[in-house]
Amino acid sequence: MKMAELGGRRLHYRDDGTGAPVVFANSLGTDLRLWDAVLPHLPEGLRIIRYDKRGHGLSDCSKGPYKMGELVSDVEALLDHLEVREAVFVGLSIGGMIAQGLATKRPDLVRAMVLSNTGAKIGTREMWGDRIAAVEKGGIAALADPILERWFSAGFRRTDAFHAWRNMLLRQPVEGYLGCCHAIAGSDFYATTAALRLPTLGIAGSEDGSTPPDLVRETTELVPGSAFEILRGAGHLPCVEKPEDYAGKLTAFLRAQGHV
Ligand SMILES: O=C(O)CC1=CCC(=O)O1
Q1: In this structure, what DSSP letter does residue 52 have?
Q2: Ligand 1: does its nearest atom lie under 6 Å from the Cβ of 216?
Q3: Which tens digit of pLDDT belongs to each residue from 130-181?
Q4: Span from the CA of 28 to the centroid of ligand 1 (angstroms)
Q5: Atom 3 in ligand 1: residue holding the nearest Cα
Q6: Which candidate, 101, 143, 122, 236, places its Cα nearest to that of 185?
Q7: The model's pTM
Q8: Which first-to-last residue range defines the signal peptide (predicted)?
Q9: How remote is the CA of residue 250 from the centroid of ligand 1, in Å?
Q10: What is the ipTM of this complex?
């Protein structure tokens, strides 16, 4: 179990393997176990860094609301602490927004990025305001069913594994969840991501009800020369539903960059 003390805040992370660094950033309401099923399918020779963003998993849960800039600064400080440079940064959903912010702020840290199930902007201020109000009133349980319908395809929702992800969402600290909802509501990366020049792969899930394929494609295409892949039969978390396929797309991208 590793905790980094970063100027008064502690982030929980994992740092496994040696070689070229790949950093993974999770979505809203999930922790670093999001990537568990993908990692065994990745090639040797990688240093795999995963972390829990603030208010999630085993990281400190500071009082919200959070700003996207704070979430970007957190992982920037973590990577400086770990002396990581030139990583491939894989970000899913809010993690993909963090990827876009970090690539803009610290191009020395990010040599290529994977924008998975994300957008330059996700939803509207009104939509996030409604979600925040509903969670403040009834807790995450009040919205768990519709959230999980967007996260997973109907087939996956009939599996035993589905209930573990449901429990992860329900055990998520409300303060951290709401803090990140505020950060997403206030973020729009269209202009800054369009100015980025780095190898970029977009990954979408055909059944994703949160960040549909068209949004992921539109976001990815902001970066000239980017590639885009759809994983069929997967919702918002294709790394959970289709881990081998997800790892295959990621590995092909890493190889194309000469990262492995
Ligand atoms: O909870 C959702 O609807 C999915 C989601 C949006 C941003 C994020 O990180 O997850």
Answers
A1: P
A2: no
A3: 999 999 999 999 999 999 999 999 999 999 999 999 999 999 999 999 999 9
A4: 5
A5: 210
A6: 122
A7: 0.98
A8: none
A9: 21
A10: 0.96
